[in-house]
Amino acid sequence: MFSPSAIDPLPLARPHRRDRRPPAPCSTTWSSGRENDLQRQPGRGEPDELALVDSAKRVHEILAATRPFLGFALPLLPGQILWVNLVTHGLPGVAIGSEVAEPDVLTRPPRSPREGLLTGRGLADVVGVALLITAGCLGLALWSAGRGGPWQTLLFATLALTQLGVALTTRSDRTPFWRMSPAGNPFLFAAVATSLAATVAGVHLPGLSDLLGTEPLGPLEWGLAVAVAVVPAVVIETVELVRARAEARHTAT
Predict the structure, then answer these.
(1) DSSP letters spanning 41-80
(2) Domains in the chain with CATH codes
(3) Phi, psi torsion values for 8, nearest 5 degrees
(4) Are 173 and 99 in contact (CB under 8 A)?
(5) Angstrom distance (rounded) from CA 224 to CA 49
(6) Ordered mean pLDDT values, 10 residues apiece, the chain (253 residues)
């Protein structure tokens, strides 16, 4: 009688045989300090830098929560919120991922394996930067509303400019961006410039401004928007510089 086992007896003789060979070594080990530091490359997953980007997203939630107390029926229209998200988290968000590693990245101590993605300091950065952006934007909008000006458009423009300034600070958590060569990430500067042009177009370009519900802004209003937008970026870079110097003194001792 024909029997399948006569052709291939192994599957029937040992149907539950398990492969006892040791698994191949993993190409990335989280216990290694160098691999951990590679995960810390600025622009490629640095948790504290990503926290700064995330803080900009929290501004919309704060604006929605504070509007009943400030007398604003609707701080930003839905189309304006979508446009701000598009110009600030579109091209700049992609360009941040093109940042090259800093020269000393492999000499830094590794992160603790028990440390979460969002550290206590990162959470403080998220809340602090979000509150700072919200205070500046709402303060300028209240000033404009008191003068009968286009406060909603001014809020829209200031919020977009502020987030573009924050995007520039994500290049490093130790070195101010004005001390870093633009050649390290030319895509980020091109993305910020493009997003800046898109923001201006959202205010002054016929058709698009009608779609977004914005009004033209004068030189004074644009100047104030730029002045307020620079403040969070300067504060972020100052805090990072102070932290870097404190870490350097601690390492030297």
Answers:
(1) -TTTT-HHHHHHHHHHHHHHHHHHHHHHHHT-S-SS-HHH
(2) 46-252 (1.20.1110.10)
(3) -140, 90
(4) no
(5) 27
(6) 44 44 42 38 44 51 54 79 90 81 74 76 83 90 91 94 89 74 83 95 95 94 95 89 77 69
